[in-house]
Amino acid sequence: LKPSASRQGGQRSQDMCGPRRQSLMMVSQGAPEATAAAEASFWQRTIANCCCVGVVSRAEVRNVLLAERAPEPSLLARCCLCKCSAEERVANGLQDIPGARGFAGITVQDGSVIDMTPTQNALETTKWALFDKGERTLLLSPYGRFGGPPGSSGAWTAPPNLGGALAINAARLCGYSYRLRFSEDFRQTTFQVLCNLCCCLPCVPPVFPAPMSLVRFEATQTERSRDGTEWLRQSFLLGNPMANRYLLRTVHGPDGSPGPYAVPEGAPQVYFIAR
């Protein structure tokens, strides 16, 4: 696979729910690198409006995910999650671990070479999750939650369709989270799923772990990866054999620099994000 030589452009997508604001892009380093527009369709804008999620073009993803402030909260986040203003983000230090630096950048779920997944080509960052270096654990809430890590909203993308929007809202109302535990050499990690079991009570923290005997996710660095830029993600569900799901590849470093991989061809031009 060849590293990306360029990124297609895009102009800012319009804010979809809640009060108007200046932009989803709040990166202190300035404007996006791209100029061509990647417009959301009428139906994507309608779904985003109804579900209180944000829309961001592929060209803007780096600026949104790595911004030092989370996006302005939507009406749902204000009313149900008590998020009244954009939260400041604090880097967790994972980017300072040489063997896992790429994991703290922006990664893409590339299933094109293994298996198609519902989250095919999703982009995310773990830079703002809660990292305990001593315990080698990482607690992250992909779409944010009540009382979750500050700034976790807008750090994980979802497909730009009704299923993606509903998944964002179900996850943040249920406190859907992962607790990752790394091996000593940071070449392997296990994911434990956490939630509150009831989307009607979003204020309940995710204190209910899914039994590892029923649901378990793992990620292992590939042989050619030495800095956390390529991981093989596997899933174990309900007694079925552990299955390869996708390759998690770094497309941007934690500082926004180009990574060794590109977003696969066929990835959507726009994504939904929580806000």
Task: Please estimate the helix content.
Answer: 10-25%
Strand content: 15-25%
Q: If you average the pLDDT, what whole number results? A: 84
Q: Show unreliable segments.
A: 1-37
Give the distance, in angstroms, between the N- and C-terminal Cα atoms.
33 Å
Order of helices and strands: HEHHEEEEEHEEEEEEE
Polypeptide structure, described:
- With 275 residues, this protein is α+β, with helices and mostly antiparallel strands.
- Helices cover 12% and strands 25% of the residues.
- The chain has helices at residues 42-51, 61-65, 75-80, 162-173, and strands spanning 53-57, 106-110, 123-125, 130-132, 137-140, 157-158, 177-182, 188-195, 208-209, 215-221, 230-237, 243-252, 270-274.
- Strands 2, 3, 4, 5, 7, 8, 9, 10, 11 and 12 form a ten-stranded antiparallel beta sheet that branches. It has a three-stranded antiparallel beta sheet with strand order 1-13-6, covered by helices on one side.
- The model is unreliable at 1-37 (pLDDT under 50).
Tag the structure with descriptive keywords.
ten-stranded antiparallel β-sheet, 4 helices, three-stranded antiparallel β-sheet, 12% helix, alpha+beta, 275 residues
Write the layout of secondary structure elements.
Elements: H1 42-51, E1 53-57, H2 61-65, H3 75-80, E2 106-110, E3 123-125, E4 130-132, E5 137-140, E6 157-158, H4 162-173, E7 177-182, E8 188-195, E9 208-209, E10 215-221, E11 230-237, E12 243-252, E13 270-274
Antiparallel strand pairs: 1-13, 2-3, 2-12, 4-5, 5-7, 6-13, 7-8, 8-9, 8-10, 10-11, 11-12
Helix pairs in contact: 1-4
